[in-house]
Amino acid sequence: MKPRSKPDEDEADFFPCPPRKNWSVGLIKFISFLVIFMAGVVIGLSASGRFTRSFNSQTEIFFPSTMYMANCDKEFLSFKSFVTPEHLMHSMTDEELFWRASMVPKMEEYPFQRVPKVAFMFMTRGPLPFVQLWDRFFKGHEGLYSVYVHTLPDYKLNVSESSAFYSRQIPSEEVSWGSVTLVDAEKRLLANALLDFSNERFVLLSESCIPVYDFSTVYNYLVYSAHSFVESYDEISQQGRGRYNRRMAPTIKLYHWRKGSQWFELNRELAAYIVADYQYYLIFRKYCKPSCYPDEHYMPTYLNMFHGSLNSNRTVTWVDWSRGGPHPAAYGASSITLEFIQSIRNNGTTCTYNSKPTSVCFLFARKFSPNALGPLLNLSSRAMGF
């Protein structure tokens, strides 16, 4: 048999035998490619370092890392801290605060279990002599109330950590009696209280005010009322219409003009309207000056003009003006008896509540001197039910 000089055609297709020269050329090309690739990697790494630094410096302008580190705190961005602020101190101006507080959700349903609260807003220049009495009033009703205190700017309220008043001061400004700064303080209290979405009713009190009923009675009376309690009446005298300034027209006319007690109670809807108002407030600030007192006319007039159907036109804070003069009668320790407190609770007055007559017209009373605290504490369980 003759040896084959070359493989069969089928074998040649599956077992090719390239010449040695082609193998050498391929090796040289591979080494060259590897050298070029490694050089490119080295150059690329060097360039990317400079690019990364440049890119980071540019993106820092638009997306600063420090901002994200500072503001992405879970508690800061939590839903709970938005609907129920735990800390009352802030750096907002009044203009910023009023804008923020005037925001009203469009959705009727709340995305959390909302229990309506009553906001007790205290306006004082200094100490609150009846803190102990109020703490007894609030005890056992946590989650149904909030406390807010407006004082002199530099005053520090000294109460125990267990008190309902602890850490409840709001950012405050100087207030002068008889001036528009009283209205500013009222709106400031309302605005801070509106930041808590669970606050449904808002009552203004002073350091000389006391409750004359227990908490449950006060809470149910306010939360289930169809109306707010702002005294608003037309007084044809120098102390009423005589305080109207004709330069307020045509925006505010004489027949709009009303007078009432400063010590009001509002539902959430009206509180938001008051905080949001700027047009009518500016008119009062400009033209209602002594002997016109903005705190006695601004809110009664504004509600009479726009929201009279939502207002009861009376106050829930009792006060004694029978002695005459610019200030009501004050009551000290010697005046505090069981009969006196009962006479405030049932003083023969008949008023309407949810369009029905009632003898329960006053939930709070003023004006009490600090030395009345002891007798009030001794009588609170018998006279006021707490």
Describe this structure as you would to a colleague.
Residues 1-19 and 57-72 have low confidence and may be disordered. The chain is built from 13 helices and nine strands. The termini are far apart. A hairpin with a 2-residue loop joins strand 7 (351-353) and strand 8. The longest helix has 43 residues, at 20-62. By secondary structure, the protein is α/β, with parallel strands linked by helices. The strands form three sheets. Strands 2-1-3-5 form a four-stranded mixed beta sheet. A three-stranded mixed beta sheet has the order 4-9-6. Strands 7-8 form a two-stranded antiparallel ribbon. The chain has a domain at 90-104 and 113-315: Spore Coat Polysaccharide Biosynthesis Protein SpsA, Chain A, CATH 3.90.550. It is found in: Membrane.
Q: Total number of helical segments?
A: 13
Query: What is the H-and-E element order?
Result: HHHHHEHEHEEHEHHHEHEEEH
Averaging pLDDT over every residue, what do you get? 87
Main sheet overview? 4 strands, mixed
Lateral strand order in the biggest sheet: 2-1-3-5
- Within the CATH hierarchy, at the fold level, what is the topology of one domain? Spore Coat Polysaccharide Biosynthesis Protein SpsA, Chain A
- Which CATH-level-2 architecture of one domain? Alpha-Beta Complex
Whole-angstrom Rg: 37 Å
Please state roughly what percent of the residues sit in beta strands, choosing from under 5%, 5-15%, 15-25%, 25-35%, 35-45% or over 45%.
5-15%
Helix percent band: 25-40%
Q: End-to-end distance, in Å?
A: 127 Å
By helix and strand content, what is the structural category?
A: alpha/beta
Count of beta strands = 9
Coarse shape: elongated
* Low-confidence parts: 1-19, 57-72
CATH class call of one domain: Alpha Beta
The multimeric state of the shown protein is: single chain
